[in-house]
C-alpha cells in the first residue's frame, strides 16, 4: 500500500521563489482569470513550479515549500494546493531524475509491445522497478495509464514529449541519446507522420480521384 | 412551498429543499454519513439513497432537490438493497475494532451498520491501512477508521474558518490530513470529534476513559466564556468525564469552544475540598465551624465600609445575590463583580448586553468590532459572525475592526486602526467605513473588554453608542449596540447590582488597604498581590489559585458542574444549569455557605431553599423571572454616561493573552496546559 508523504528528510528545500522566466509565465497565466477567480491558476502554476525545478535543479518536482508559494500567490489555503498537487500524478511530490520516463502499459500499448519498451528502459537505465530513479540520477521510470496515443502505440513519454511506435532497440537508442544530452525529435520513431498509416498512404492514392463535391 | 409525498405521507417543504429534508419533514429516518445540516452538501457517502418517482435508479437524497408533486420512497426493496450495498462498501476498509474504539456505542457507522447493513461480510482481501495524523493535543486520530465523509474538511473550512484539513491523493489512497503535521489552529477543533461519524477523530484527553452508555448526562451551561454555550456534562460516579455541546440554535447551534470542552480534567485537580485557616502564616486544615468562627471574630468591630467583596467570573447568579445580601447585611457597599476593572453604565440593561443577540448577527449587514477579539473571547459567537459572513457572500457583510491588528478573525475584516482616535475619525465620517455603516440597514457595533477595561472604558462605550445611534443602529426594531463580555458571571452580576453602592469601593479601591476584610467569591483574575498585607482575605471558591494563595480563610465552594445555578450570557439570556456531580470533600454550594455564615454573624439571610433564593433573585432583577429571552430594539436612544475619564488615544489591547489559561479551572487542567504549550508558547515547548 503506497502512503502519500512528503519528500524524504533533507531533500525538501527550505526555500522556493519563482525566477524571472516563471514570473513571465505566471503573468500570462493569471491574465486569463478574473482576479477573484485566480485560484483557477493552481494547476498551471504547479506546472510552472515543476518546470522551474527541472530547469534550475535538474529534477522536475514540486516541493512543499513551492506549494506554499503557489498558495500565497493565489491567496488560497495551502491545503487546497496540496490537495491538487497530490491528486494528479503529473506532479511529482518527490524528487525525480533528469529525465522522467513514463511508459504507458494500458491495453493498446501493452498489445503493441510495451513490455519490450519497459524492459529496454530498465536495461538501459539499470532501474529494476517502476517508481525508481537510476543510480546516476538521470532517469526515473514511471508506469502510467493511457496517454491517449493508442494509434501510435507503444508510447514512452519523456518529460513532456511523446516518443511513439517504439520497440525495444529504438527505446534503447532513445535513452542512450538522452544520456548523451541529446533530445531526439519527438513523435513517431519509425518516421511516419503523426498517426498516418505506416508505410505511406492507403487511400486516395490515385491522382485522378474526383475532387470532393460541394462543401462536404 | 413545494408539495412532496414521502412513502405516501404528504408534506410541504420550502422550495430548494433536498429530498432528505423532505423525508425528515415526513418523519422518515434517512441514514447518512457525509450529510450534516450545518455543513455544505458533499454527497459522497451514498448512504442516503432513496427512490424518486420517475427515476430509474436510487438518488442521493442529500443533494437531490425536490420539485412539486415528487414522490419519494424510502422503504422499497431497491432502497434497502442499495443501503446494504453502500454499507458493505464502507465496511470493506473499515477495521473491526469497535471493542477498542472510543466511538463505540455512539458511532453512526456502528448504528447504521446494525440498522441498514448486511449481517456478514463477503470481503476476503487485505484491508487498507492509513497512517495516523497529528492534529494537535485535543483530537486523536485513527485514520484507518476514516470513511472519507469529508465532514471534518468542511467543518474546518466552513465553520471554524481555518482551512487546514484536506483530502490528499485520490481513489483508494485518499487520506484526510493537514499534510504538514501541525496542530489545528482553531478554538473550535473539539467539534471535529462530534461531527466525525466514525471513530477516526476522537477526543485525545478522553481516550479510553469511559463508554458512552456508562455516563450520566446532565444539562449545563458553559462558563468558560460569556456566550452561555449549552452543554451536557457526562459523568460517571463522582467525576465529570467529558463535556459535549447541546443543540441550541439561539446560542451555540451545536458547537462548543475547546476551552469549554476540554477544561473538564481540571475539575478534580487542585480542588479546595475542606476549609483552611491561616495560622502563623501557614494554611491549616480546619472545620467549617472554626473557619466561620475565625471570620466572625475578625469581623467583630469592623465597620461596614471597611469590608469588601469581589465576585469572580464563573459565579452563578444565586451565590452572587447571596454575597450581595450578606454585604448589605454587614453594612457594606463595597462590592464588585468586575475583577478586570471594566466600566459600564449599569443604569440600563442594554448599555451592557449584546443586544443584537447571537441570532441577530445573521441579519446584520455591517459590523464594527471595537477593542475585542471575538475569536478568543467567544469562539462560538465568532463562528456565528463567520456564518453570516459566508452567507452574505462577497462584500455582503462588511466587517471592520478597531484594535487587534494581528488577530486572524477567520473572516475578512478591515483593520481601521488601533485606538479610540480611529473611532472618533469614523464618527466624524473621515473613513470610508463610516459610509458603509451609515448605508447599512442593520449595522452592528461590538464593544469588547479591550476597550471597556481601560480607565476611559465608559467614554469609549459612550462613543460607540453615539456612533450606533448616528448610523441608525438603534431603532425600535433593531438594536445594534453590543457589549461582548468575557466573564460568564458578569451580566448576572450587573443585573443583580454587584457594583459599588453610593460611596462604595470598586475592585481597585478595595486593594492596597482600601478594606480590612475582603471576601473573594471565586475571584482570581485581579492583581491579588496588591491586596494590602494587613487585609484579612476570605476566599470562597473551588480551586487553589491566586485568590486561595493569598487567603487567610478558605471556604471550599463548588464548581459549575456541582451546583444548580443560573447564568446570564452576554446577550442577557438567563439559562439554568443543573448539578452533574456532588462536590468533593467538605465543599458546599456557594449560596449555602453564605447563608450559613450569615447566621453565624447574626444577619440570617431570608432564604433557606434554592426556590426561595430564586424568588428573591426575580425580585432583585425581574429578568431572572423571565423564561424566554427575545431580541429587542429600543426607541430610547439616550446614551450611557461617558464617565469622568476622558478618552486617551492609547491603542486597544486584547484582554486575552493566553486563550487556554484564562481562569482557575483551566489553569488546573493538564490538557489546557498542554494546549497553551502547543498553541500559545510553541517556542518555549520547543526549547525544552
TrEMBL record, chain A:
User: Which GO BP terms apply?
Assistant: inorganic cation transmembrane transport
Is Nucleus found in the keyword set?
no
* Iron-sulfur among keywords: yes
Which cofactors is this protein said to need? [2Fe-2S] cluster
Question: Which keywords has UniProt assigned to this entry?
Answer: 2Fe-2S, Iron, Iron-sulfur, Metal-binding, NAD, Translocase
Recorded hits in Gene3D superfamilies, A to Z, give: Glutaredoxin, NADH-quinone oxidoreductase subunit E
Under Gene Ontology molecular function, one entry of this record is:
inorganic cation transmembrane transporter activity
The name this protein carries in UniProt is: NAD(P)H-dependent oxidoreductase subunit E
Q: Which GO terms describe its cellular component?
A: catalytic complex; membrane protein complex; organelle envelope; organelle membrane
Question: Which residue windows are transmembrane per the record?
Answer: none
What residue spans carry the region label Disordered?
A: 180-216
Q: Which organism is it from?
A: Komagataeibacter melaceti
TrEMBL record, chain B:
- UniProt cofactor(s): [4Fe-4S] cluster; [2Fe-2S] cluster
Keyword Iron-sulfur: yes or no? yes
Cofactor remark: Binds 1 [2Fe-2S] cluster per subunit.
Query: Pfam families, alphabetically?
Result: Fer2_4, Fer4_NDSU1, Fer4_Nqo3, Molybdopterin, NADH-G_4Fe-4S_3, NADH_dhqG_C
Q: Which CDD domains match?
A: fer2 (cd00207), MopB_Res-Cmplx1_Nad11 (cd02773)
Enzyme type, top EC level: translocase
Q: Which GO terms describe its cellular component?
A: membrane
Note the InterPro entries from the entry: 2Fe-2S_ferredoxin-like_sf, 2Fe-2S_ferredoxin-type, Mopterin_OxRdtase, Mopterin_OxRdtase_4Fe-4S_dom, NADH_UbQ_OxRdtase_75kDa_su_CS, NADH_UbQ_OxRdtase_ferredoxin, NADH_UbQ_OxRdtase_Gsu, NADH_UbQ_OxRdtase_Gsu_4Fe4S-bd
Provide this UniProt record's keywords sorted from A to Z.
2Fe-2S, 4Fe-4S, Iron, Iron-sulfur, Metal-binding, NAD, Oxidoreductase, Quinone, Translocase
Q: Which residues form the 4Fe-4S His(Cys)3-ligated-type domain?
A: 78-117
| Gene Ontology MF terms | 2 iron, 2 sulfur cluster binding; 4 iron, 4 sulfur cluster binding; metal ion binding; NADH dehydrogenase (ubiquinone) activity; oxidoreductase activity, acting on NAD(P)H; quinone binding
**Do you know which PROSITE patterns this protein is assigned to?**
2FE2S_FER_2, 4FE4S_HC3, 4FE4S_MOW_BIS_MGD, COMPLEX1_75K_1, COMPLEX1_75K_2, COMPLEX1_75K_3, PROKAR_LIPOPROTEIN
Which reactions does this protein catalyse? a quinone + NADH + 5 H(+)(in) = a quinol + NAD(+) + 4 H(+)(out)
Where in this chain does the record put each 4Fe-4S Mo/W bis-MGD-type domain? 215-271
Q: Which residues form the 2Fe-2S ferredoxin-type domain?
A: 1-78
**Record flagged with keyword ATP-binding:** no
> What EC number(s) would the UniProt record show?
7.1.1.-
One GO BP annotation of this record: ATP synthesis coupled electron transport
Q: Which family does it belong to?
A: Belongs to the complex I 75 kDa subunit family.
Cross-referenced NCBIfam families: NuoG (TIGR01973)
Name the job this protein performs. NDH-1 shuttles electrons from NADH, via FMN and iron-sulfur (Fe-S) centers, to quinones in the respiratory chain. Couples the redox reaction to proton translocation (for every two electrons transferred, four hydrogen ions are translocated across the cytoplasmic membrane), and thus conserves the redox energy in a proton gradient.
Which protein are we looking at? Answer: NADH-quinone oxidoreductase
Gene source species: Komagataeibacter melaceti
Amino acid at each position: 500500500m503506497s502512503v502519500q508523504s512528503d519528500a524524504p528528510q533533507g531533500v525538501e528545500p527550505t526555500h522556493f521563489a519563482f525566477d524571472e522566466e516563471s514570473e513571465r509565465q505566471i503573468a500570462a497565466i493569471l491574465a486569463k482569470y478574473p482576479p477573484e477567480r485566480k485560484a483557477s491558476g493552481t494547476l498551471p502554476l504547479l506546472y510552472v513550479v515543476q518546470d522551474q525545478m527541472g530547469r534550475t535543479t535538474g529534477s522536475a518536482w514540486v516541493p512543499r515549500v513551492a506549494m506554499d508559494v503557489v498558495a500565497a500567490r493565489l491567496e488560497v489555503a495551502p491545503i487546497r494546493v496540496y490537495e491538487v498537487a497530490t491528486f494528479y500524478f503529473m506532479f511529482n511530490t518527490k524528487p525525480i531524475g533528469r529525465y522522467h520516463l513514463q511508459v504507458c502499459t494500458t491495453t493498446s500499448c501493452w498489445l503493441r509491445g510495451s513490455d519490450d519498451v519497459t524492459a529496454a528502459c530498465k536495461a538501459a537505465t539499470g532501474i529494476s522497478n517502476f517508481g525508481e530513479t537510476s543510480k546516476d540520477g538521470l532517469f526515473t521510470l514511471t508506469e502510467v495509464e493511457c496517454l491517449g496515443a493508442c494509434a501510435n502505440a507503444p508510447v514512452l513519454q519523456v518529460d513532456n514529449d511523446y516518443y511513439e511506435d517504439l520497440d525495444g532497440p529504438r527505446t534503447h537508442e532513445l535513452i542512450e541519446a538522452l544520456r548523451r544530452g541529446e533530445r531526439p525529435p519527438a513523435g513517431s520513431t519509425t518516421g511516419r507522420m503523426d498517426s498516418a498509416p505506416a508505410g505511406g498512404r492507403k487511400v486516395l492514392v490515385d491522382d485522378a480521384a474526383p475532387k470532393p463535391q460541394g462543401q462536404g | 412551498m413545494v408539495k412532496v409525498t414521502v412513502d405516501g405521507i404528504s408534506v410541504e417543504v420550502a422550495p430548494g429543499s433536498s429530498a432528505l429534508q423532505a423525508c425528515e419533514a415526513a418523519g422518515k429516518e434517512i441514514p447518512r454519513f457525509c450529510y450534516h445540516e450545518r455543513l455544505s452538501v458533499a454527497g459522497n457517502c451514498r448512504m442516503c439513497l432513496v427512490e424518486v418517482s420517475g427515476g430509474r435508479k436510487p438518488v442521493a437524497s442529500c443533494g437531490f432537490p425536490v420539485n412539486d408533486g415528487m414522490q419519494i420512497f424510502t422503504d422499497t426493496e431497491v432502497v434497502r438493497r442499495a443501503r446494504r450495498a453502500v454499507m458493505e462498501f464502507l465496511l470493506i476498509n473499515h477495521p473491526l475494532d469497535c471493542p477498542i474504539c472510543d466511538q463505540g456505542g455512539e458511532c453512526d457507522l456502528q448504528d447504521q451498520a446494525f440498522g441498514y447493513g448486511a449481517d456478514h461480510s463477503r470481503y476476503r482481501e487485505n484491508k487498507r491501512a492509513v497512517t495516523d495524523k497529528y492534529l494537535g493535543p485535543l483530537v486523536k486520530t485513527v485514520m484507518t477508521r476514516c470513511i472519507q465523509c469529508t465532514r471534518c474538511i468542511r467543518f474546518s473550512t466552513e465553520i471554524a474558518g481555518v482551512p487546514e484539513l484536506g483530502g490528499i491523493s485520490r481513489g483508494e489512497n485518499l487520506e484526510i490530513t493537514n499534510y504538514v503535521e501541525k496542530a489545528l489552529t482553531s478554538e473550535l477543533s473539539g467539534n471535529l470529534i462530534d461531527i466525525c461519524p466514525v471513530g477516526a477523530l476522537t477526543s485525545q484527553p478522553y481516550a479510553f476513559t469511559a463508554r458512552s452508555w456508562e455516563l450520566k448526562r446532565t444539562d449545563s451551561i458553559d462558563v468558560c466564556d460569556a456566550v452561555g454555550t449549552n452543554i451536557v456534562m457526562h459523568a460517571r460516579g463522582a467525576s465529570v468525564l467529558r463535556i459535549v455541546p447541546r443543540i441550541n440554535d439561539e446560542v451555540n447551534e451545536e458547537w462548543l469552544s475547546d476551552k469549554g470542552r476540554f477544561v473538564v480534567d481540571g475539575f478534580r485537580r487542585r480542588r479546595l475540598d475542606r476549609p483552611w485557616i491561616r495560622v502563623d502564616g501557614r494554611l491549616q486544615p480546619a472545620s467549617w465551624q472554626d473557619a466561620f468562627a475565625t471570620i466572625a471574630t475578625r469581623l467583630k468591630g469592623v465597620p461596614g465600609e471597611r469590608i469588601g467583596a469581589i465576585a469572580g467570573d464563573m459565579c452563578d447568579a444565586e451565590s452572587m445575590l447571596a454575597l450581595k445580601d450578606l454585604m448589605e447585611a454587614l453594612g457594606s457597599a463595597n462590592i464588585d463583580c468586575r475583577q478586570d476593572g471594566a466600566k459600564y453604565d449599569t443604569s440600563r440593561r442594554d448599555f451592557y448586553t449584546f443586544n443584537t443577540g447571537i441570532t441577530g448577527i445573521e441579519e446584520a449587514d455591517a459590523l464594527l468590532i471595537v477593542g475585542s477579539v471575538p475569536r478568543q473571547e467567544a469562539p462560538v459567537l465568532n463562528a456565528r459572525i463567520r456564518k453570516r459572513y459566508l452567507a452574505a457572500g462577497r462584500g455582503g457583510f462588511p466587517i471592520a475592526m478597531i484594535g487587534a491588528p494581528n488577530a486572524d478573525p477567520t473572516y475578512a475584516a478591515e483593520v481601521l486602526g488601533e485606538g479610540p482616535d480611529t473611532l472618533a475619525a469614523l464618527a466624524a465620517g473621515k473613513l470610508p467605513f463610516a459610509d458603509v455603516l451609515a448605508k447599512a440597514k442593520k449595522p452592528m457595533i461590538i464593544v469588547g473588554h479591550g476597550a471597556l477595561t481601560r480607565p476611559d472604558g465608559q467614554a469609549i462605550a459612550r462613543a460607540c453608542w453615539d456612533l450606533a445611534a448616528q448610523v441608525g443602529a438603534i431603532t425600535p426594531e433593531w438594536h445594534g449596540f453590543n457589549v461582548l463580555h468575557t466573564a460568564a458571571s458578569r451580566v448576572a452580576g450587573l443585573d443583580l447590582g454587584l457594583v459599588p453602592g453610593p460611596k462604595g469601593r470598586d475592585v481597585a479601591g478595595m486593594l492596597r488597604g482600601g478594606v480590612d476584610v475582603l471576601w473573594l467569591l471565586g475571584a482570581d483574575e485581579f492583581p491579588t498581590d496588591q491586596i494590602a498585607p494587613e487585609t484579612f482575605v476570605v476566599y470562597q471558591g473551588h480551586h487553589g489559585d491566586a485568590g486561595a494563595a493569598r487567603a487567610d480563610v478558605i471556604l471550599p465552594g463548588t464548581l459549575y458542574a456541582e451546583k444548580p445555578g443560573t447564568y446570564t450570557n452576554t446577550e442577557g439570556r438567563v439559562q439554568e444549569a443543573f448539578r452533574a456531580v456532588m462536590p468533593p470533600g467538605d465543599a458546599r454550594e456557594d449560596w449555602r455557605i453564605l447563608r450559613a455564615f450569615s447566621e453565624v454573624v447574626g444577619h440570617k439571610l431570608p432564604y433557606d431553599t434554592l426556590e426561595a433564593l430564586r424568588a428573591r433573585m426575580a425580585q432583585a432583577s425581574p429578568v431572572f423571572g423571565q423564561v424566554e429571552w427575545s431580541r429587542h430594539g429600543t426607541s430610547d436612544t439616550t446614551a450611557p454616561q461617558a464617565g469622568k475619564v476622558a478618552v486617551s488615544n492609547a491603542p486597544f489591547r486584547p484582554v486575552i493573552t493566553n486563550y487556554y489559561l484564562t481562569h482557575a479551572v483551566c489553569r488546573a487542567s493538564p490538557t489546557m496546559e498542554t494546549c497553551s504549550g502547543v498553541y500559545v508558547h510553541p517556542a518555549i515547548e520547543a526549547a525544552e
